[in-house]
Amino acid sequence: LKRALTSTGQDSGLWLTIAIFHMSFTKNRHKMGEALRSCKQNIPSMIERWMVYALLHDLEKVNAAASASKNGQSGGEGVAFRSKIARAQRAHDFAKAYLSQAYLFLSREHLDLERIMTYLDKAIISELEAHAIFDELMKEHGTTSVQLLRAYGSLLRDIYRDDDSALAMFNEANAIEEELAANSGHGRSAMAGDRASVGQHSQGGISVGRDKNKGKRRKKSGSAVLGQASKQENLIPGL
Length: 239
Fold this sequence. Notes:
Largest sheet: none
Distance between the termini: 36 Å
Number of helices: 9
Number of strands: 0
Strand content: under 5%
Number of domains: 2
């Protein structure tokens, strides 16, 4: 796959194969999502578009379930979180669709200014709705929710073209995933050590303290990312 990717990186079928590879073998949801987005950008066929839609739908369900589990959210809070993030993502999709229609009419020889402005107005309304919901959720879950960080980063990338803030959020999400995976493996080792001796239990306590320090550093990083993102409120989306 790597050799094929270096020789031809604009083959939608190749990107789809890479996405399926990550779904089936590496279990890397982030790389799978990136491969699906690259597939959509390289003019896929109708069958490939349907496969991308189906895979993205499955990926969203897996991410939602994983996010709810990792954040330790109880029933009511988990439902509210998923409902809000679904509303924000739907508004994000509407904003992208309206912008695409506006750009399509702008490319025509005879401009229909009334229709163009209508699409732009609707894009701004949808973008503001998504932005408001994401801001609210970031204050509560921004430093722990991988799904939220990536969804908000996608809004900043797709609508505002703020690649720097979007990349910062994607990197933060990757760091959280790596830390959670490391802590999970360490937690299992600590439990085995607890059964062996009290001394190993004390070492586990020290590790927990280190994990808390990591959490504090992550919280500060998340706050900095939120500060960068909030600066984009007054931008006209996509322009």
